[in-house]
Specification:
about 160 residues, about 70% helix, mainly alpha, 6 helices
């Protein structure tokens, strides 16, 4: 009986060890990316409190432009213009986030006001993109927004960040 118990203990240890050695750990990968993504004004290491990554506006704009590009087929210099628009609004969002403090520390009334401002800024961004895109491209962009909203809802249902 002791031999069987030791066998299973050894087996479990071997599996745990082998699973943990599949390359770089997540924290190592995050630490390597931290200089570009960490906001120096937020304490708590990469991503600040809660471990979430904080992108600077340039990185956020680049990432959004790439994500939109997976749905919208850019023509000519559209990609550069989309990046400019994304950068403009990423900076606005960063300014807004810096105002009252952490979203988690806000009262319900402050959260509602913040969401209202965010919706207004996002509507302005959508109008600029609508002026840049063709009708078909804007439809593709709307599909992108739907997919992103769906992913946010799924994260919230799983207990992830809002």
């Amino acid at each position: 009986m002791k031999k069987i118990g030791l066998f299973f203990l050894g087996f479990a240890l071997a599996i745990t060890t082998s699973c943990g050695q599949g390359g770089k750990s997540q924290s190592t990968a995050q630490a390597e990316q931290a200089p570009a993504m960490q906001d120096p004004q937020r304490p708590g290491g990469p991503g600040g409190p809660g471990g979430r990554m904080q992108f600077n506006p340039e990185d956020m704009a680049k990432r959004q432009t790439e994500q939109i590009g997976e749905y919208v087929k850019y023509t000519g210099d559209q990609e550069a213009k989309v990046n400019e628009i994304n950068l403009k609004y990423a900076k606005k969002m960063q300014e807004m986030r810096g105002e009252p403090g952490s979203f988690r520390d806000m009262s319900d009334a402050q959260r509602q006001e913040f969401r209202k401002k965010m919706d207004e800024v996002n509507a302005q961004k959508d109008e600029e993109l609508k002026g840049l895109f063709t009708a078909d491209q804007y439809k593709q962009y709307e599909v992108f927004k739907e997919e992103m909203a769906k992913m946010r809802r799924e994260r919230m249902m799983q207990g992830g960040r809002p």
